[in-house]
Amino acid sequence: MRPSGRAPDQLRPVSLEPGFSRHAEGSCLVKFGDTHVLCTASIDERVPPWMRNTGKGWVTAEYGMLPRSTHTRTDREAARGKQSGRTQEIQRLIGRSLRAVVDLPAMGERQINIDCDVLQADGGTRTASITGSWVALHFAFERLIKEGKLSASPITGQVAAVSCGLWEGTPVLDLDYPEDSKAQADANFVLTGSGGIVEVQGTAEDKPFSEPEFIALLELAKKGIGELTRLQRLAIGPSSIKSP
Amino acid sequence: MRPSGRAPDQLRPVSLEPGFSRHAEGSCLVKFGDTHVLCTASIDERVPPWMRNTGKGWVTAEYGMLPRSTHTRTDREAARGKQSGRTQEIQRLIGRSLRAVVDLPAMGERQINIDCDVLQADGGTRTASITGSWVALHFAFERLIKEGKLSASPITGQVAAVSCGLWEGTPVLDLDYPEDSKAQADANFVLTGSGGIVEVQGTAEDKPFSEPEFIALLELAKKGIGELTRLQRLAIGPSSIKSP
Amino acid sequence: MRPSGRAPDQLRPVSLEPGFSRHAEGSCLVKFGDTHVLCTASIDERVPPWMRNTGKGWVTAEYGMLPRSTHTRTDREAARGKQSGRTQEIQRLIGRSLRAVVDLPAMGERQINIDCDVLQADGGTRTASITGSWVALHFAFERLIKEGKLSASPITGQVAAVSCGLWEGTPVLDLDYPEDSKAQADANFVLTGSGGIVEVQGTAEDKPFSEPEFIALLELAKKGIGELTRLQRLAIGPSSIKSP
Amino acid sequence: MRPSGRAPDQLRPVSLEPGFSRHAEGSCLVKFGDTHVLCTASIDERVPPWMRNTGKGWVTAEYGMLPRSTHTRTDREAARGKQSGRTQEIQRLIGRSLRAVVDLPAMGERQINIDCDVLQADGGTRTASITGSWVALHFAFERLIKEGKLSASPITGQVAAVSCGLWEGTPVLDLDYPEDSKAQADANFVLTGSGGIVEVQGTAEDKPFSEPEFIALLELAKKGIGELTRLQRLAIGPSSIKSP
Amino acid sequence: MRPSGRAPDQLRPVSLEPGFSRHAEGSCLVKFGDTHVLCTASIDERVPPWMRNTGKGWVTAEYGMLPRSTHTRTDREAARGKQSGRTQEIQRLIGRSLRAVVDLPAMGERQINIDCDVLQADGGTRTASITGSWVALHFAFERLIKEGKLSASPITGQVAAVSCGLWEGTPVLDLDYPEDSKAQADANFVLTGSGGIVEVQGTAEDKPFSEPEFIALLELAKKGIGELTRLQRLAIGPSSIKSP
Amino acid sequence: MRPSGRAPDQLRPVSLEPGFSRHAEGSCLVKFGDTHVLCTASIDERVPPWMRNTGKGWVTAEYGMLPRSTHTRTDREAARGKQSGRTQEIQRLIGRSLRAVVDLPAMGERQINIDCDVLQADGGTRTASITGSWVALHFAFERLIKEGKLSASPITGQVAAVSCGLWEGTPVLDLDYPEDSKAQADANFVLTGSGGIVEVQGTAEDKPFSEPEFIALLELAKKGIGELTRLQRLAIGPSSIKSP
Questions:
Q1: Residue D182: inside a domain
Q2: DSSP 8-state code for residue F197
Q3: Which of D152, E4, E62, F11 is buried most, with the most CB atoms less than 10 Å from its CB?
């Protein structure tokens, strides 16, 4: 029995609330149980210097945690004067994951800045961030279409993410913080709506895991992401994104 | 007629929602119209080195804005590697304002860290932060009482804040962003529940203001803060804080 | 009786010595008793990027304390790698105060950098800085007129500053360090030559102050600033600045 | 045909040269073809503050590239004043990988600092770093045994790493830089001597990859790491490490 | 003829004004012509961690230039967030030079912090700093003797510094800024009162210099430093320092 | 007898191995005994902003030590976030030394970046760096000639460096670390192939040294540098550099 009482293949209650932020071109408040992340997508009509005149756009991401999103207060990165290695690792992952489903030349020479700010943390903040950011990104592109700056969405498919882990030998889906901190192994999967693998990050916390164990985690992830992408489609409403 | 259509002495709709954050010892989501600030109070049983063995406690504050809380995206301070002068000025103001109504020796050698994070900005973020933080601070002390670490709240009174300004020559209460950016003068008042002045910061934006104008702003502030402290008392419920 | 032995409405001996610095376009060594600040004004024919092609100039200020200007040595900010919140707050105040009496479009697209460096500190460094900087700024503009780059000074009036406080219940003018560190309340006033309010910053150190107390401080400030602006006029000699 | 002319399952020439560094307690110059990394292991008899009195030791890693290890010069991180996100990601990976095969309580309250400095880069610097660092770590523990500070090596097994990728649809082993920069997908595997999975990091560069493709990469990695761990055993000579 | 009109072996007018700073335990305003440096010596009863329990004291130095001490304004190092290589080089030189004439064990486990702040620069700021700091240091030790914390000064001799250079082939003493910026070679000499060499730093600016040229510069320096140490003795008055 | 057993005027075994680095336009691994420094020269076709349109080129240098190049591990400067004063002092010295033998206008508006990275340290890293960098620089210019971008080398002569010191009163050449750490005085000489002085840096470690002692050190240096420049000529092979 996992600490949360959930079945091994059961997600936490997930909600995706688009339009949470009044100013952002796209936004989504995503909740995976007690993990709440505000994802915003901001359009910047300029690309970074190294991309100018390439005819391509860019999607980049930043990630932060409110100091008291965590069980005990975490130092504010702005006050410490630098972002931790963990923060940088996560924001690089979010950016890569989203770019995997965007046709960069089709978006024109502009940049979308994704901001994922964790209001409350209970495990899985990076997977919630990716899942919610895709929704925010969708609406930023919708805005560009509405303004006549794009004729179609450069999004080529859905992308969502979930963590899986070995809990006392059993593969379980969508670890919350108490589960994550005691899992024997922990893997984050970023998959497309059609089940393609975009990113896999598996880490043995306690002892190495075997190939069959890893395959079992991947199977769980595919099931969970099937559900997450269904919720994403509900969140964006009728739209140009095809079902998987 | 002010841009917001409000009467000169009319606050924006204000709400104070305690307990917004699951992990913090005290928290309050404060809204002054479209300005939304999440205030948390975190108890730290250690004081900073320079206060050890003084027998006194400390209340300190940090302030931040989510990058897309603003009309156009603002750079993330954690990514830029330092907090702006404005941020530091505001967090020092919040800390001083709260300490003015706390009996520091009575709270014991511990520190309360206040975090004010702006989820959405539309003017008056510093005054909303002070007003909401007082509520978060109240609940953090309640927690210490409940845990038997304090026998009574060291809070000696209420404190709240509001901005006032001159709009086309007319003194107006609680400026929102469009009003603030065009006001001829702008002053922030931090007053106690009994009308005592804790902090005054007045700045002539366009041309100097006269003494009578300044007095008129102070009168408006007293009215507004009377209403804000009433809402604070509603938010904390029946408690040891006396009405003014 | 205040610690300094001065009457409640008595300034410390004040001197303003223009031309202290050989290289600066304008300079003034200002002394408020044992508080000595070297103020320089440097002309930069370029404005910051965000002001280019606006047809306006800019006046900005930086502030620093020599490590041993203080009673005990203070860490050097250049060695610590960042300016404190206090430093930033003060230099923003100095800049705003001076800009309030400069016609920015009239000064052309150039910038004046004011540097206020405290050689010796005994309270009131920010008010001395503002008072002395106005003199330095005056001479920088005189230089531009002499060089034919301006036809008239873009200064629209005088600006000076003084602190006031409550000393054992009595309002007193121009606090020195021993007074400041024990005052019950402390306010800095920045006024124009004609008595207009440019900046007010009042802080209750010990307990909140009342509105009548605050008005009494403002009255003292007006008296003190009348004297300071008289000394400024003496320091600049016969010039285009009208008496108030 | 891959650019390097190697068979799909063929490693580059690999060499592991222990004792390259005169001062370090353990060291190894590892070469994967033209990728050369100097790995050193330094014993520090103190652990970081948060580990004191836990009875456990720690292994941590830092990573850097010489500015001209790369095809075109890369800015020196010490001059830029911070380590990139990529650097931090890699050094965290190296540390986790090594700790997976160390019995931390058995090593006593001391820390081993691994430094991986890339003298020349041609792809696969992180996998070479992990493979070489294990050898350096081995010798640092040997030194502690020789000095009588440990009675047996706390190393519980071997760990090595290799990258695999999809080159024009074909799974290939041990990507060099030209292959890596054009691969359709790229995965780094960190495995133990007995084939257990310690870390997996897969990234689709161009388009998502399928589960069978991912399994094929894992199979290649197992083969490559079998060879790398054989070379590690040769490098350390007769020792307490059992063959897999 | 050198630009300054001085004879080749002629110092600029030099003055040493002790006690310039009200708060510092020792201070001296040193002027070498238009180069003005405020030197202060601050006693710190604690030594840095790495010196604790060594029974020895330490003398360290920091150096800074006011932004407008220079002909055109120099960026403030505190604002730029770091000290330049030049600044660090100079402050290390000042510290080493002073320690060469201090019996560190005799001064007890305390530290003297020397601060050299350039109020006005016209070449030779580092040599003026060393010369003036020795006077400031003297008075800090006098203070410790007066307070009964030391029975005798731990200063073992005098130290002073001067620059020399080749001006159109002629060796000249004590370069001012116009001379320094066009000199063919430039050397700073730090000598004791008895002519011993403490530091030599020679740099060919334009073309290498010969051994005889270098010896000629050293001869000039000895003459100049003879005069500087005479002025130091006048500045400190009758004291325990023997004439050379 | 010096600790190394060498004769007073004997260099350590010196080797200069050009072409050590595969990617750099010029490179040299230099060994002075157990001091090993990798020197690379990288061509950058852009000059820094302040040199644009001057028609001149620039040679600059950076220096670093691998964390475990030293007897005990030194913190990584990239991790500490800044370069030490010592590092900056050394890299400025290397740059000045090389520029002394380069005709900057003749090299065209481009920059050569020298990187000196210490793989193993045993005293004299800065002198080895200068000596080896000259070889790396030579080959970078050869590359420009080969590519038709220059018609002749802008190098006007050789430059090399060596340290000398007083060991128990005896002048000795080329100090290794045990000698350096106990020498009574220590001087670094940078001389041209024809014996001209480019840089001299002498520091009395223990007690001041006399003029004759200093001259003796210079004589030793001339002898040592004669040998070093001979080895440089061997390393570059037949070339346009004339023998001294």
A1: yes
A2: E
A3: E62
